[in-house]
Amino acid sequence: MSVTTRKPESSETRVTSYRAAVVHEFGAPLSVEEVPARALEPGQIRVRVEASGLCHTDIHAANGDWPVKPEPPFIPGHEGVGPVVELGPGVREVAIGDRVAMPWLGYACGTCDHCISGWETLCLEQENMGYSIDGSFGEYAVAYARYVVKVPDGIDPLDAAPLTCAGVTTYKAVKVAGTRSSDLVAVFGVGGLGHLAIQYAAIAGGRVIAVDLIDEKLELARELGAEFTINATKQDPVEAIQELGGADQAIALAVSPRAFEQAYGSLRRGGKLVFVALPADNEVTLPIFETVLNGITIVGSIVGTRTDLREVFELHGAGKTHVIREQRSLDQVNESIADVEVGRVAARIVFEL
Ligand SMILES: [Zn+2]
Ligand SMILES: [Zn+2]
To answer: What is the band of 4 on the pLDDT scale with cuts at 50, 70, 90?
Structure first.
């Protein structure tokens, strides 16, 4: 009898270095440069990035905007998608050639109360792609095999990228909101996240009100299933939504505390406000008296689990969602960040690697 030798674990020649967009200093332009490839540790895989979306979080990371900061130099990006090209020791979850998505939740402990109760996104040991560990703004990225999600055949990697953060985050927010048929759902902010939130709220049976400051975005919202649209520069969204009876749920996706306050004001009695966006300005003023008397629920929702992302891909594969995106090259990373900051993009920018 012959003994078969184990086939090599990489189908491509070993990667020694690759091009990536690196943050060297908060607030400074990213530098697109050649970086050395790290050796894989147990449980890790190397992915050849085909597409990586630009999320507002990447911009906050590059600017060092939040209380918990990443440590430069680092590579942002947490919407990376591509085939697995190398397996580290002990990897069983994926095989060479599988196309995977590398979400914000790059690693969790797998054993704490949060992890074992389906709330791995709350794990205190978590690592985040493009923040505490290098992300997908590069030709390659290293990820933990257990925390990537396979992208089903037939889904365009350029669609899969925005679904990996914008999609799963808003899908989970609608789950957390508890939207049911006939509920009135107000979505504040129609960008990379909002354009998907509208679709998930409609899929859940909600009647959607989209609020934004830009008419073109509201037009897009209508095309994607919003029944009502409000331009907050021309009309008071609180008044307009109260006239419709008040929202059962409001989802705050705009990076402005003012929008959070308006979202709160738009609720009907017993309504629920879901905090999702993370404005650099970290304070919001909400009344206690009305919250108590009106039985208002306020809840934060952070990204989603691997199961949520699988469901997001399933819906997309079934043709139930549309991703609005604009392809760019990684060399355009700095102008792309500038465009997102002033709202000069229809929805999501995706870098094609
Ligand atoms: Zn994100
Ligand atoms: Zn854990």
So the answer is: very low
CA of 163 to the centre of ligand 2 (A): 24
Q: Looking at the CA of 124, which ligand is closest?
A: 2
For residues 46-59, b (16+ Cβ closer than 10 Å) or e, as one string? bbbbbbbbbbbbbb
- Annotate 327-353 with b (16+ C-beta within 10 A) or e (fewer): ebebebbeebbebbeeeebbbbbbbeb
Q: What is the pLDDT of residues 203-252, one digit of tens each?
A: 999 999 999 999 999 999 999 999 999 999 999 999 999 999 999 999 99
Whether residue 168 contacts residue 304, with contact meaning beta carbons closer than 8 Å, is answered with yes
Q: Which two tokens stand for residue 290?
A: 């009305």
User: Which ligand is located closest to the Cα atom of residue 58?
Assistant: 1
Report whether pLDDT(306) > 50.
Answer: yes
Mean pLDDT calculated for residue range 336-349? 88
**CB neighbours of 278 closer than 8 A, spacing ≥ 6?**
56, 57, 60, 66, 255
The whole-angstrom separation of Cα 48 and Cα 84 is 6
Q: Ligand 1 center to residue 302 CA distance, Å?
A: 10
| 252 CA → ligand 1 middle, Å | 15
| Angstrom distance (rounded) from CA 270 to CA 301 | 19
How are beta strands 80-87 and 99-102 bridged, if at all?
Answer: antiparallel
Question: What is the spatial distance between Cα 292 and Cα 288, in angstroms, rounded to a whole number?
Answer: 6
State in Å: Cα 115 to ligand 2 middle.
4
pTM of the model: 0.94
Dist. CA 168 → ligand 1 center (Å): 9
